[in-house]
Amino acid sequence: MILKNKKIRVGLIIFALLVGGIIMWDSKPQIDQNALKESAFLPYPPQYNYRQTKNDCGPFNVAAVVRVL
Predict the structure, then answer these.
(1) What's the pLDDT tens digit per position in 36-48?
(2) What's the N-to-C CA distance of the chain in angstroms?
């Protein structure tokens, strides 16, 4: 098989990384600066600030967003 040669495998990996880097480098998002607001305020009552336990940041953040919405 052609991929048994170590130099060919390393060359293919480097080539794939270079192609991936070129694709990622070229795809920059376009942001309309006029569509951005200067500030935003979401009403969040202080009674919703629950004390979380260890490793609960994700569920507590999702719950906070759901309560605001």
Answers:
(1) 777 777 777 788 7
(2) 58
